[in-house]
């Protein structure tokens, strides 16, 4: 027997029952983005591998273990994008829309990471990313947090998601902290697991994020970065906290929040929920004021974040009953025809209705079957109304209109269909 070809591990299909919920969540996200003046940018899903190595950092989990890299027919080494920030900056430098300009951008689409698949963690997943260029003050950091807050409120999850923030200082001050942290870790080497020992000299800040309970306990006494940051970063962070206080936004300062990618400086943020177990981070981001220059552009202040749409959809479905019953199968009108030459009349009527009622969801019955059978099909499609074109009805310029929501049925003149539909579907 021929073996069926399966989807690639960790890469999911999204069926119409899922896409209905996705679309309504996406629409809310997009509407609010536009409300803040953010514009969409669409970027390729493949870039040169060197872009990610340079942007994210050679010794990060993402670059070391998680990238999907391939060699194309020309011998170019290409990577399926694991995140969107690097590609966005690459485009900005290429098209010259970063230098001396302000940009508020967003994108949405699939990202690829070779991780161990589990709930809330996939190999192809989707992110909505936002990037702001050219604004250096903490006001824009606060704006992004306000935008997030508005999303969560509109989606009905604001009571179940909390904001953690931290300040990583400048790269120079971080270097100083790094050495102090290494010294602390060296003094407590006996409490570190093998993993931590391995990253101790390569990326010691990763240990601050360890899930090992013994290490976690040790970290409670580790030196904190905020004590070592430069003065300008401190002023920036205090400015952000003050803005959030005045705007009535709740937050926690997590001194050990570091994020997994190397490019962040100053502000880092995460929005976390307790509903999704270990995969509780819905949204993460921060400042990356050095990255544009590092990728070959002019120095440009920048800040951004990305939300994991799968995790967001999970949470919204879990907490907001309005998003539980959505289905793509909700149809407004289902047109049934029975008898010779009625099919073409039904198709013409359907087209005419679509011309004048472009927002209406309308399906025409295809295939044979008695009227009863066709009505069963209409019910399966979740239709609200069905128009029945029988030979007899057509002869007398009538159609039968059946309201499947309450079972009522009446004959109406063909010339009145549009008005009647408009009233019934209001
Ligand atoms: P995590 O700590 O969960 O691995 P991360 O720090 O690697 O997350 P980012 O690179 O900041 O995540 O990506 C932003 C968001 O994208 C995450 O907060 C999460 O919601 C989502 N995300 C990241 N990796 C995955 C994945 N493999 N599957 C589903 N969503 C993901
Ligand atoms: Mg990760």
UniProtKB/TrEMBL annotation:
GO cellular component, one term: cytoplasm
Keywords assigned by UniProt, alphabetized: Aminoacyl-tRNA synthetase, ATP-binding, Cytoplasm, Ligase, Nucleotide-binding, Protein biosynthesis
Catalysis performed (reactions): tRNA(His) + L-histidine + ATP = L-histidyl-tRNA(His) + AMP + diphosphate + H(+)
Binding site for L-histidine: 83-85, 113, 127, 131, 259, 263-264
Residue span, Aminoacyl-transfer RNA synthetases class-II family profile domain: 1-358
Enzyme Commission no: 6.1.1.21
NCBIfam families for this protein: hisS
Record-given protein name: Histidine--tRNA ligase
Source organism per UniProt: Candidatus Pantoea edessiphila
Gene field: hisS
């Amino acid at each position: 027997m021929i073996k069926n070809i399966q989807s690639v591990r960790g890469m999911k299909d999204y069926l119409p029952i899922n896409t209905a919920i996705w679309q309504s969540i996406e629409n809310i996200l997009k509407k609010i983005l536009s409300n803040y003046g953010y514009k969409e940018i669409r970027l390729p899903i493949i870039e040169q591998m060197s872009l990610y190595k340079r942007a994210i950092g050679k010794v990060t989990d993402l670059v070391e273990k998680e990238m999907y890299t391939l060699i194309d027919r020309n011998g170019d080494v290409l990577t399926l994008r694991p995140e969107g920030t690097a590609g966005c900056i690459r485009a900005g430098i290429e098209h010259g829309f970063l230098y001396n300009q302000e940009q508020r951008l967003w994108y949405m689409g699939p990202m690829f990471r070779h991780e161990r698949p589990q709930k809330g963690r996939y190999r192809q997943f989707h992110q909505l990313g936002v990037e702001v260029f050219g604004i250096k003050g903490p006001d824009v950091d606060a704006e992004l947090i306000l935008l997030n807050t508005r999303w969560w409120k509109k989606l009905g999850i604001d009571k179940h998601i909390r904001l953690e923030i931290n300040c990583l200082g400048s790269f120079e001050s971080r270097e100083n902290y790094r050495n102090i942290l290494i010294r602390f870790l060296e003094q407590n080497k006996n409490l570190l697991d093998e993993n931590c020992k391995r990253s101790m000299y390569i990326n010691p800040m990763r240990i601050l994020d360890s899930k090992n309970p013994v290490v976690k306990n040790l970290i409670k006494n580790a030196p904190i970065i905020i004590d070592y940051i430069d003065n300008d970063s401190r002023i920036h962070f205090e400015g952000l906290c003050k803005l959030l206080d005045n705007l009535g936004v709740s937050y926690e300062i997590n001194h050990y929040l570091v994020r997994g990618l190397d490019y962040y400086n100053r502000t880092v943020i995460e929005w976390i929920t307790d509903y999704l177990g270990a995969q509780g981070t819905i949204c993460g981001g921060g400042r990356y004021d050095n990255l544009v220059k590092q990728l070959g552009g002019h120095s440009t202040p920048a800040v951004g974040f990305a939300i994991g749409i799968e995790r967001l959809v999970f949470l919204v479905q879990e907490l907001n009953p309005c998003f539980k019953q959505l289905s793509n199968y909700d149809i407004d009108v289902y047109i049934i025809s029975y008898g010779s030459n009625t099919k073409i009349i039904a198709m013409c009527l359907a087209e005419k209705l679509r011309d004048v009622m472009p927002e209406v969801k309308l399906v025409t019955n295809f295939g044979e079957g008695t009227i009863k059978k066709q009505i069963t099909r209409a019910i399966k499609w979740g239709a609200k109304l069905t128009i029945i074109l029988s030979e007899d009805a057509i002869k007398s310029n009538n159609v039968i209109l059946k309201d499947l929501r309450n079972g009522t049925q009446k004959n109406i003149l063909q010339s009145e269909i549009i008005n009647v539909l408009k009233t019934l579907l209001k």
